[in-house]
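Weekly puzzle thread! Below is a chain. First person to post its structure in token form gets bragging rights.
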Amino acid sequence: MQIGERIAFYRQRRGYTQSQLAGLVGRSTDWLSKIERGERQARRVDVLTELAAALRVSLGDLMGQPVLMEDDDERDDIPAIRDALMAPGRLSRVLFASEEGAPPDLRQAEQLVEFLWADYQRGRIGDVVQQLPRLIQAAQQLEDAAAGRDSDDRRRSWAMSARTHHLAATTLSKVGEADLSWIAAERAMKAADEADDPLVLASAARAATHALLAVGRYDDALSLGETAASWLVPQVEAGDPNALSLLGMLHLRTAVAAARRQDRTSADDLLNQAERSAERLGEDANYWQTGFGPANVELHRLSAGLDLGDMTWVANRGEDVDVSHLPIERQVTHMIDLARALSYLARDDDALALLLSAEQTAPALVRHSAVVRETVKNMHRRAPVTGGSRSSRLLGLAQRCRAVR
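Winning reply:
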């Protein structure tokens, strides 16, 4: 179903008339009727968030998230990640203490999580999903054994767990598993508390802002980002590039949260703060796998503009931004944002070309994106029928994204 059809489905399940639901979100009955029939698109995420709240469902329910995380080899390891996160042993270390075995090698576990972070940034999300269950289990074993280690190894064990669960939260959010992403983000924050390192804590908070954005909790994302940023003050004042990068990314994520609740002033202020951190850093670097720097700030300006409805500005400015030196995940995310803006402006041929290029660069990031799926679905619906079918290139992409059957 399209978003409008899902809104109609949940409205009917709740027993609301179109007039009642429209009134709950401050819109006209005619507006809602056109949304449900697909004659008009609900472009702003804050409006979808209001509709989800009125219907008492999650934002992901209206967005149609997720689809099965299957790649060309038909691998689907999201259930295995769920099993690892929800293992009974995580409920009580007292009850399940007798099940503890020998922990994995700490150094090898640290190397594996950094290797998988690199894979994530290269767009190899299928490989990350496949390896995450084993890595989460290793992190859990290191947590259980942390109390018996010396202080340095104990902190390293908890830091490794925080990094692992941060990666899990970010990856799960990327493929539409918002609820699982929140569980992983909460685990990352708890592990970071034990690691006793402000950089680890700030990095984990970044994961939690991703999870909060995914479920439409924008005020909470803003509050968390601002609180986490305050922990970095001593390191930032000392000019630590790691702290500058993490601070900048927290400001960028909270800027997106502000934009999604249509607070343009706060979004601009946070983007400007991130820009000042980028200027101090002086380059597009990748400390703590942030990919932070002047170019990333510009990409988040475009992303915020997209959420604020500045489609023409995003389309015109986005085409001139050079992202070739950034991590592949950032490049593809930018291409998706730009394609969405072009699609909203009915420049579907340009949008399709961008999405196909993005798919060639990182297939899984495109095919398992809920926003790509909705964009492609709308493009396919309004594409002219030639020879009894839609454009073959568009139809092929729509099928690979599970946008159409």
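Puzzle host: Confirmed. Bonus trivia for everyone else. The chain has a mean pLDDT of 89.
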